[in-house]
């Protein structure tokens, strides 16, 4: 199956049509003849950056139950009774602690501790004007093929090497992973991405032959690794 697979969208602005195609880890197109195009009814590119306070646990230890009672002023009446009974100065000490906290700029300072691969949530829309097969089924099938492993070996690792490549093979694993893709949409080209999840609405409308005439395809795409500034510049083409 070659060429551009898409529904017919007339004069819709090309920037509103997302382009999906296969790439390698460096973003180079593997098959320049296969492209899936579709408008995205929903799309959101999300980057989660993990920040944490290295002294957060220390601050929690300092905030003992007794200290919290002192800070809240709950011990003030008891301290006053102790002063009257034993001649202590606990009430003045308790008054000095009331309204204070152990949180400081030092023990609340955030440091960067990690980053997850970026997530790209999209919903691609396909609908048929003339031919459900070429406008809906073919582009969806191509997306599904990109999401699935190229090949899964039927046997275990050792048996697969014995029956196919032999023990002298330099290939340690018999199965082939899913392909990497790029998505060109509006002002950016995101690559390389993997399709972490893809859904098919089996209740979507069909024609009299059972062919889908409209299909909304939600997908979760993620970058292969966490990204940095250079990766973002690559996405934007700057």
Write a compact overview of the structure shown.
This protein is an alpha+beta fold and 238 residues long.
Give your account of this protein's structure.
The protein is of the alpha+beta class and 238 residues long. It folds into two domains: 3-48 and 116-236, no CATH class; 56-112, no CATH class. Helices cover 28% and strands 29% of the residues. The protein is built from seven helices and nine strands; from the N terminus they run ββββααααββααβββα. The protein has a six-stranded antiparallel β-barrel. A hairpin with a 2-residue loop joins β7 and β8 (188-198). α3 packs antiparallel against α4. It is elongated, with a radius of gyration of 30 Å. It starts with a strand and ends with a helix. The mean pLDDT is 83.
Lateral strand order in the biggest sheet: 2-3-6-9-8-7
Largest sheet: 6 strands, antiparallel, barrel
Mean pLDDT value:
83
Report low-confidence residues grouped into runs of 5 or more. Answer: none
Number of helices: 7
What portion of residues is helical?
A: 25-40%
Strand content: 25-35%
> How many domain regions?
2
The helix/strand class is alpha+beta
Tell how many strands the DSSP assignment holds. 9
**Elements, N to C (H/E):** EEEEHHHHEEHHEEEH
Question: Could you say which overall geometry the principal axes of the C-alpha atoms support?
Answer: elongated
